[in-house]
Amino acid sequence: MDAFLLLNPLLCFLTAASLSAWFVLKRRRTNQQQGVQPPSPPRLPILGNLHQISPLAHRSFHALGAKYGPIMLLHFGSRPMIIVQSSAGAAEILKTHDLVFGDRTVSRRTMKKLAYNQKDIALSPYGEHWRKLKSICVLQMLSNKRVQSFHFIREEETSLLVEKIKACCNSPVNLSELFTLFTNDVACRASCRKKYSEGEDGRRILRLLREVSQLLGRFNIGDFIPWLGWIDRMTGFNRRVDRVAKEVDEFLEMVIQDHLNSRGLEIGESGHGNHEDSFVGILLNSYGDGNIDRDGIKAIILDMIVGGTETVAAALEWTMTELFKHPNVMDKLKCEVRAILKDKDNTTSITNNELEQMQYLRAVVKEIMRMHPPNPFTGRVARQDVKVMGYDIPAGAMALVSAWAIGRDPANWDEPDAFKPERFLGSSIDFKGADFELIPFGAGRRGCPGIGFAMASIRFLLANLIYKFDWELPLRTKWEDLDATEQPGGVTARKNPLFAVPKVAQF
Length: 507
Ligand code: HEM
Prior knowledge:
Layout: H1 2-34, H2 57-68, E1 71-76, E2 79-84, H3 87-96, H4 109-114, H5 128-141, H6 144-149, H7 151-167, E3 173-174, H8 175-192, H9 199-217, H10 221-224, H11 229-234, H12 237-263, H13 279-289, H14 294-325, H15 327-340, H16 352-357, H17 359-371, E4 377-381, E5 386-388, E6 391-393, E7 398-402, H18 403-407, H19 451-468, E8 469-472, E9 499-504
Parallel strand pairs: 2-7
Antiparallel strand pairs: 1-2, 3-9, 4-7, 5-6, 8-9
Helix pairs in contact: 7-8, 7-19, 8-14, 9-12, 13-14, 14-17, 14-19, 15-17
This protein binds protoporphyrin IX containing FE.
């Protein structure tokens, strides 16, 4: 007994020493197997680096990047995440190794539920199915010709918004709300030939779509530490996802049925006449070709409506915020727009030709996309082992390329935190995916197919708002203290709605 008491501390010491040696050796061996890894902040057992990431993750990564450099290895639970925050790193991932990084994201429960088991375009794994859908999307749904054919929708929705603003002239209007309504109505009419924002039902659908984008943008614990998945059950998160998925499915079923009823068709029948006046119509034609099933149609329509609503509304909100914060830029923009439209009859619509001439407006929008990219990251997954910036990245690692950090990188931009649209005048830098210092729409094979659709709405609406109204901030709000706090989520919009006072412009 005495001998055992004496031996016990000795045994404990020996056990602890051997375990520590085993952990050190294991980590060294793992590191050797994994090759040269990117710099990595120290991490906690189980959580990895999750404790170092605030809800505004792009800002946390930026702060960590100042210490660990433009490529870092973090762990979300046990899952490796490569964070890339330089244009050189972005070019390696989105151009040199675009095919290797062709998968979108690790499959998460929320995505499976809300994107019909990833049958959509945005979350679908790289492969034949995705290639077919992307080609339908680029060549038929979002081609330049198709975007042009939706001009009448942008015109009608802009006129309605202008009338709503005129009705509240000289008192504060909630621009954030008006922008979401406008972008949702345009996206729904292009997708379904009909808008779904009116009445109590409409408000419910808008709330639902906002919930979808919040849920998709949220990292929840069970996705990264699977054995803690019970927390998502306990907190009601999984129940919420199931409820939203069910309601979204009911809405999308109604959209398809409305479309078929209006033509007296059953799904799969092609009927007569032009069916290509909306995304649902185009997709129903592809259903006949066997490229897509009913869930696939619903998943893609959701991509189009979610992709085309909050991102575009956030871009509009940030543009007006920065214009209010910089009255000199607002004045310059007003001069440009009003000079180009000076001989115009106020009742006729702004033409594409007139929009093309508005070079300063173009520069303002690029500056917004640099400083406030609505999606701060582009997320991709490595399909095989690959070397990036000299580091070994294992297959299955997720890479987050931060358009936000790259847009604020002093290596790319003079005074990166200053709002200076002039930097784009006479510059050939664009956001279409060829210039890696400006990648709000990503780049490469999986780059955003909606740039033309988004820009057509953004430029047209802004030109109208600047031409038809003079804007002031509500009483007691000074432009220099205008709130610009960001809202966490998949799309970085303003946290608080933007209010401003319109006055009908006097010429
Ligand atoms: C200001 C507006 C928008 C922004 C900032 C934006 C941003 C992005 C980004 C960053 C990606 C990922 C790109 C990559 O991985 O390289 C993406 C993908 C995508 N976007 Fe957009 N987007 C916008 C508008 C739209 C619109 C209007 C639509 C459709 C109507 C759309 C549909 C899509 C789709 C379908 C994908 C997935 C492409 C794929 O995985 O192959 N987006 N978008």
